[in-house]
């Protein structure tokens, strides 16, 4: 990032807008990358698409050209004013406010959710969106590569953790391609990646008490080097591991998503 003479960081301006760090503003400028993202989304007329964080419209413009109508959710007042100036209301419906609090069930379904997400809220936003999975057709996002790696990681891999299990329980996901910092203004310090997410059919989910499963997963990954015997002590005695057919000396990082569902269902059935 550019430094001023005094050594202070000079605010980055893009298209006359000062990028706000607190809103995670890194604007896409690389037209090839923008084209690749829109190709990956493959928007069609008549689809219901919502873009989170349209900013100065790097993705909004080509999306609109392809599908003719769009919903957007933006928090920055200056950018909201520009969106209203730039697009006719019958083309772009601007929802003003925080995507973390936005009620996505107020939009038509099946919904396609897209965006170059503000990285500072990406994890809570993914969990918020997971609550609307039954109304969503698919989601295509740009995120920090490190977060995408955690989302798609498999058991035993270093990146495998709570985010992997809780999202893989709900979605089939694929990391599509990486995007270097040079594709943005201002450039973020980290590499980004595009991730595609498609909700799994409701009957595939299976878990009878997802909230309980969330607590178990959090405990199992809270102390990664501890065994299940230790991390799941609040719920399971040694004989429960026998009943589950699981090794109490195993670590959570080696369990598949289905294993966590199995444990949660076992505890749920026992309690019920
Ligand atoms: N889509 C634009 C692009 O690709 O150039 C901007 C992407 S920029 C990484 C993130 C955008 O999300 C900004 O427009 C920012 O103002 C907006 N934003 C940040 N936090 C938000 C929130 N909580 N809810 C909705 N929009 C948010």
Automatic annotation (TrEMBL):
InterPro entries: KsgA/Erm, rRNA_Ade_diMease-like_C, rRNA_Ade_Mease_Trfase_CS, rRNA_Ade_methylase_Trfase_N, rRNA_adenine_dimethylase, SAM-dependent_MTases_sf. PROSITE patterns: RRNA_A_DIMETH (PS01131), SAM_RNA_A_N6_MT (PS51689). Its EC number is 2.1.1.182. Keywords: Cytoplasm, Methyltransferase, RNA-binding, rRNA processing, S-adenosyl-L-methionine, Transferase. Its main location: cytoplasm. CDD domains: AdoMet_MTases. NCBIfam families: ksgA. This is Ribosomal RNA small subunit methyltransferase A.
